[in-house]
Design brief:
303 residues, alpha+beta, 6-stranded antiparallel sheet, 8 helices, 34% strand
Length: 303
């Protein structure tokens, strides 16, 4: 029996790689394995509505075509169901796709779907409402996520320029952090709560994180002095941020952050105004996903 699949396309995501998606699907998706249809989102969080409707109708798989925000929208709709998540990365950061080692070229990512290699990963529930599969955070990263949402251009260059522009302006805040019942007080630049290793662009804020270990990885970062950036930045991009003197890391099942002064939180790359108190709880093995079988070649579809 064919896998009943809905492809959800964010037409304005990232850097525009999704524009030829229907042609690429016809050329690369195995028609003998998949019975698929395509829908385009029309407004913010429309992907969640479409994905939830598909899950209710018994679809086997819902594929997000876009960036981490588009993936997050789909996950909100299918979490804790038997519907699997597929990803065709067309965003700018693509943090979850990179962690899963998915190709960033859409036509190759489509061929990953043909492998039908199923994996079950954890998710993070935030304030009993929002779901995160990649990474979340408070402080500077949430501030940048909010600004990127309204930016005219996307991609690494735009992200880097924004970080450099705002770096000196954004100040540390005082936080009370409760990690599995243990309280800590920290003055921090930002706090990341991660399910996977990175935010995107291969910027690894939680180098020890695993998608299916039932734990949250918490990284508390102090503001790095300008003269230390030449050392710290390469550590972040080579998966060794834990070696920096400016970071403190924990692992936990539940984390409460209080004192989020500007009220914004980064949820899978999208800024959301949640409030000054933010609670993160891991939900083990709650999302089924098509991953990549590294032992198989990405063969073209069978004609």
């Amino acid at each position: 029996m064919k896998t009943k699949t809905l492809i959800i396309v964010n037409p304005i995501s990232g850097v525009g790689r999704q524009r030829r998606i229907e042609t690429l699907l016809k050329q690369n998706l195995n028609q003998d394995l998949f019975d698929y249809s395509v829908r385009y989102t029309e407004h913010i969080h429309h992907g969640t509505e479409i994905a939830r409707e598909a899950a209710d109708k018994g679809y086997d798989c819902v594929v997000a075509v876009g960036g981490d925000g588009s993936v997050n929208d789909v996950v909100q709709g299918i979490k804790d169901t038997d519907t699997r998540l597929g990803i065709i990365p067309c965003g700018s950061g693509n943090g979850l796709a990179r962690t899963l080692k998915l190709p960033l070229q859409p036509w190759l990512a489509i061929r990953v779907l043909n492998q039908q290699c199923e994996q079950t990963i954890d998710s993070i529930v935030v304030n009993d409402r929002w779901v995160v599969v990649n990474a979340a955070g408070c402080g500077f990263d949430a501030y940048i996520a909010r600004l990127m949402h309204s930016a005219k251009t996307r991609g690494l260059a735009a992200y880097t320029n924004l970080v450099l522009r705002e770096y000196t302006r954004y100040k540390n805040s005082d936080y009370r952090i409760t990690v599995d019942g243990h309280e800590y007080y920290r003055n921090a630049w930002f706090i990341a709560v991660a399910n996977s290793r990175q935010f995107g662009y291969n910027l690894a804020v939680a180098p020890k994180a695993k998608l299916d270990d039932g734990l949250l990885d918490v990284s508390i970062l102090d503001k790095v002095p300008i003269d230390h950036l030449g050392i710290t930045a390469p550590l972040a991009f080579t998966n060794h941020l834990d070696l920096s003197q400016h970071v403190e890391m924990f692992r936990a099942k539940e984390v409460l952050i209080e004192g989020n002064a500007d009220r914004w939180v980064n949820l899978d790359g999208e800024g959301e105004n949640i409030g000054k108190s933010v609670n993160f709880v891991v939900h083990p093995k709650s999302v089924k996903i098509y991953a990549r079988d590294m032992k198989q070649l990405l063969l073209p579809r069978i004609r």
